[in-house]
Specification:
single chain, mainly beta, 12-stranded antiparallel beta sheet, 5-stranded mixed beta sheet, 5% helix, 38% strand
Length: 676
């Protein structure tokens, strides 16, 4: 009789099903490889079926099996187990493992490092053992063709030239020196990861931020460091990075990571990730849910001392922006008694009200140490609290559902939302102010210049805050056709939204006016005593308005594709893979007002708004992977000759993309493991 309610497991694939009333079960997709099947039920002995080999897109039928009752004796025949050790690869990520094809899974063909156009593959185990917290850090270590001279914004410690906290994007991953966001393409499951475009910066799209993808979701990373304009949309003359997400799994995982230095400095990086997968409706419905939380703290100059190790002593006539204000005579005259020096500095802890007596014993003494803020990071190389990076925390939520409507139709929906909050600490402003001889604040009786470093402590160390939101949704359908043909159609909507609250700078003319009106005293220790209210209201410039977030970037993309593939087509030369189809892409950036104001609400200048822009393009593509000649025609010293040919025709309302882009590859596999 039929065995209903038997639990059937494929442990290697982490899949399980329950037999129906006819004693039958069905796994919709499994990766290529060898498997052992285990059947469990109450009152019967466990049944193991070995030697099951799954091939790409080819159904595997398990013959009928007989379950033995627990009380039935069973004699086992003797057997010998033989095997060889796993091939340990020194480079790359290990053996090729392909997640099963699903409606919202990897669109791309199965890529390996043995193809005619070889990819470099990094698998999940290699990534897991690296101990990194985010994907960019891992790729930074591994990709030899990436831009080693460029660092991502979250690791940028460029002092006054460092990127603002609202700037994101994995700019360091540009391959072979091609820096444009359209010259090195980053994909997730074969679909374009939307670029980052922030209004108010340089107006150019930046490379996508791969850190939007939690490490816990990554199955493998495929890298092609050659021109691939025919294989993928866009103009990837530098190369392609495809991030393949994990397949469906029936399990619950909790992963935590913590890294830090062992001595000298404290720069912890931590992450916590929860992943749950479950199958319902006798395996027809597969769900995945994931949540990831990360936090990064940068090292500071106070811990590392790189800047202090290279400080030089400036000339007497030069402004010196250091710990306390440095004062010099505007006319290079003695500041104290005749024949005395023309420079001095404010004593630590001075509040600016002590007159000339506050400078007793400080003739010729300049302040040459670095500025020490009141607490927290300070975004300037003139500060001890300068961060070599930025404080950043992120959260990511992912959900996926695939449903087998019929044995030949599968529907799927993926969605991901991430938020990154970043700070660089206090904004630091350098001022070289003039204190006239007649100014009541001036105790020197002559015009002097005061070089100082100023912050805005009343706003708080984390006032300048960036909130970068990324969301993406994929809806797809996969149709199984006769003779191993597959047809798929899918659409992806992505959005990058950047909100920023922060300072756009200081108006130096207004700052000087506050000094002239005796509303701002430059002769105080700016490390301990903050500026007056008038400085916040009349000199500082704010994005949008004070204490409000402004939208600096609202960038959306819409991608749609239809394709037909066959990865098991038999031609006279051998097993062949064919893929062809069409895709559509639309990019849109919203308008930006460019408004900046003073603290009192007045405009700093005439706004420079940018209008909304939309770019669209459509392409047709085809790709063939096949042996060039039948294996039986080859001499014994040549095992195989592989070829790969692809072409893509692009029509766009911009001239930045090629109209026709062909790509081809040829590979000879010789005896002894050599290839050409």
């Amino acid at each position: 009789s039929s065995a209903r309610g038997v639990r059937v497991e494929l442990a290697a694939a982490k899949l399980a099903r329950t037999t129906d009333a006819n004693g039958e079960f069905f796994f919709s997709e499994v990766a290529v490889g060898d498997y052992e099947l285990l059947a469990l039920a109450s009152g019967v002995q466990p049944l193991r079926v070995t030697g099951l080999h799954a091939t790409a897109d080819a159904p595997l039928v398990v013959p009928p099996q007989t379950l033995q009752l627990v009380n039935d004796p069973q004699r086992l025949a003797p057997f010998v187990v033989e095997g060889t050790s796993e091939d340990r690869q020194r480079f790359g990520g290990g053996p090729a493992t392909f997640p099963p094809r699903t409606a919202v899974g990897n669109l791309d063909l199965a890529r390996t490092d043995h193809d005619a156009i070889p990819f470099t593959i990094y698998d999940r185990e290699h990534i897991r053992r690296s101990g990194v917290v985010n994907l960019n850090e891992y790729l930074q270590r591994e990709l030899l063709d990436s831009d080693a001279s460029n660092r991502p914004p979250e690791q940028d410690g460029g002092g006054g030239n460092s990127a603002p906290s609202y700037v994101t994007g994995s700019s360091n991953l540009s391959l072979r020196g091609f820096e444009s966001a359209d010259e090195t393409i980053i994909l997730v499951n074969g679909r374009r990861l939307p670029e980052v475009l922030t209004s108010g910066s340089d107006g150019k799209p930046r490379m996508p931020d791969v850190n939007f993808i939690p490490l816990s979701l990554v199955q493998r990373v495929e890298v092609l460091p050659v021109s691939a304009s025919a294989l993928y949309s866009g103009n990837p003359v530098g190369g392609v990075i495809n991030i393949v997400l994990r397949p469906d799994a029936e399990a619950t995982e909790v992963t935590t990571t913590y890294t830090n230095a062992l001595h000298r400095f404290d720069a912890p990086q931590s992450s916590v990730s929860v992943l749950h997968g479950q199958t319902l409706l006798y395996g027809a419905l597969r769900l995945r849910l994931s949540a990831t939380f990360t936090r990064t703290e940068p090292a500071t100059e106070a811990e590392l001392g790189h800047i202090r190790a290279h400080l030089t002593t400036p000339a007497l006539a030069d402004p010196v922006f250091r710990a306390t204000p440095n004062i010099r005579s505007a006319d290079q005259l003695p500041l104290f008694a005749p024949g005395s020096t023309s420079v001095t500095s404010v004593a630590p802890g001075a509040d600016g009200t002590g007159g000339l007596a506050a400078f007793n014993g400080r003739a010729g003494l300049r302040s040459l140490g670095l500025f020490d803020s009141v607490g927290g990071l300070a975004n300037s190389s003139a500060s001890l609290d300068f961060p070599y990076g930025r404080r950043q925390q992120g959260e990511s939520y992912f959900g996926s559902a695939t449903y087998d409507v019929t044995p030949w139709l599968q529907l799927g929906l993926d969605g991901i939302y991430t938020r990154t909050v970043a700070h660089r600490g206090y904004n630091v402003f350098k001022g070289d102010l003039t204190l006239d001889a007649a100014n009541p604040l001036n105790p020197f009786g002559q015009t002097v210049r005061v070089a100082l470093v100023e912050t805005a402590p009343s706003l708080g160390a984390d006032y300048s805050e960036a909130r970068v939101d990324f969301s993406s949704f994929v809806l797809g359908a996969l149709v199984k056709l006769p003779a191993d043909w597959r047809a798929s159609v899918d659409a992806q909507y992505g959005r990058n939204l950047t909100h920023y609250r922060g300072l756009a700078g200081v108006d130096n003319d207004r700052w000087q006016q506050l000094v002239d009106q005796t509303l701002y005293n430059p002769l105080r220790d700016t490390q301990r005593f903050g500026p007056p209210t008038a400085f916040y209201d009349r000199a500082l410039k704010y994005y949008g308005a004070r204490d409000r977030f402004v939208t600096l970037g609202d960038y959306t993309t819409l991608d749609a594709a239809v394709r037909i593939t066959n990865q098991n087509l038999t031609l006279p030369t051998g097993r062949t893979t064919i893929s062809a189809g069409s895709d559509f892409r639309m990019n849109h950036i919203a308008s930006y007002s460019g408004r900046r104001t003073y603290g009192d609400g007045s405009l700093t200048d005439t706004p420079s708004p940018t209008s909304a822009r939309t770019v669209q393009r459509i392409s047709l593509f085809g790709e063939v992977q096949a042996p060039l000649v039948p294996a039986r025609w080859l001499p014994s010293w040549i095992h195989e000759i592989k070829t790969e040919i692809a072409a893509r025709y692009v029509a766009a309302d911009t001239s930045q993309e090629s109209n026709l882009a062909p790509t081809g590859g040829l590979k000879f596999d010789f005896a002894g493991g050599f290839s050409l």
